[in-house]
Structure formats: C-alpha cells, structure tokens
Amino acid sequence: xxxxxxxxxxxxxxxxxxxxxxxxxxxxxxxxxxxxxxxxxxxxxxxxxxxxxxxxxxxxxxxxxxxxxxxxxxxxxxxxxxxxxxxxxxxxxxxxxxxxxxxxxxxxxxxxxxxxxxxxxxxxxxxxxxxxxxxxxxxxxxxxxxxxxxxxxx
Length: 154
Ligand code: HEC
Known about the structure:
By secondary structure, this protein is an all-alpha fold. It is 66% helix and 0% strand.
C-alpha cells in the first residue's frame, strides 16, 4: 500500500526542523550584531538620519516657546539651529561627521578656508554631508551655523 503523501511530507519536515532551528540560531545573532556594529554605508546612514531629522526638529526645537516665530524663520540663533539641524550628526552621533568641539577633527577642514566650508555645508559633499544638513534654511543661516561650529571647534 502506498503511504499518504501528506504524512510523508510531515515526516520529512519534522526530521529537518532541528537543523532549521540550528541554522536560525546561527543566522539571527549575525543579523542583530551586523546592525549594531555601526558599519553602515555613510550615505545610507546620512539618508537615514535625514529621514528621521524632521522628528528631531519637532521634538527638540523651541516651538513650545513660539511656534509661529519659528515657522516664520526669523534670523535664528546659530547655536539653536545647530542643535536642531546639525547636532544629530556633528554632535558625535555620526562618526564620519567632524564633531563640533573636537579641534583635531576640524583643523584640516578649517585650513581649507571658510568659503570651502560654506560650499560644503550648502551643497553637501560626497562624504555624507547632506546639502544644508537636510534643511531648507537660507544661505545666511547656514553660513552663520558654520561660523558657530568652527568657533566651537578651534
Ligand atoms: C546627516 C548627517 C549630517 C547633518 C544633519 C549635517 N552634517 Fe555636516 N557633515 C556630515 C558629514 C558626514 C560630514 C563629512 C563630509 C566629508 O568629509 O565629506 C560633514 C561635514 C561638514 C562640514 C565640513 C565640510 C568640509 O568641507 O570639510 C561642515 C562645515 C558641515 N558639515 C556643516 C554642517 C551644518 C552647518 C549642518 C546643519 C545645518 C550640518 N553640517 C548637518 C554630516 C552631516
């Protein structure tokens, strides 16, 4: 008499289940640790940070004090703008972004001259600096923030 195919299949799956589970056990930690070791492509990382930036802006801005004024984009305090728009990367969160306050990381960049830094900040760089830090701030505001960052990093 022929065995029912369904029984046969179930037996085969049952026989392989332990091996399948063992493989999952090997693969899962690798996925988890790969995500943790920070070895993300800088551009991917920049895109990710850019995507989450608006959430940070809503949470960390001074909107509570004067939401209308913030929306009107009055000449903002460069320190506050830095904190809201740039600090996620330049505060040490993104290893490839020169950290504000770390003179060693800024020395060679400052040596290029302010105009070069302005251009990088406005247009972005292939190394992961997004144009205007992912914001739509005007030139004068971006330049003021660059001045602030440089002053903090000498
Ligand atoms: C998404 C992350 C990110 C944000 C947000 C960000 N930066 Fe950057 N920035 C970088 C990275 C990465 C570099 C290094 C790029 C390189 O070396 O090409 C960089 C480099 C720079 C430099 C040096 C450029 C040079 O030519 O050496 C300046 C100036 C700068 N950023 C200004 C700003 C300002 C101002 C803001 C906010 C308005 C800002 N950044 C926001 C990631 C970021």
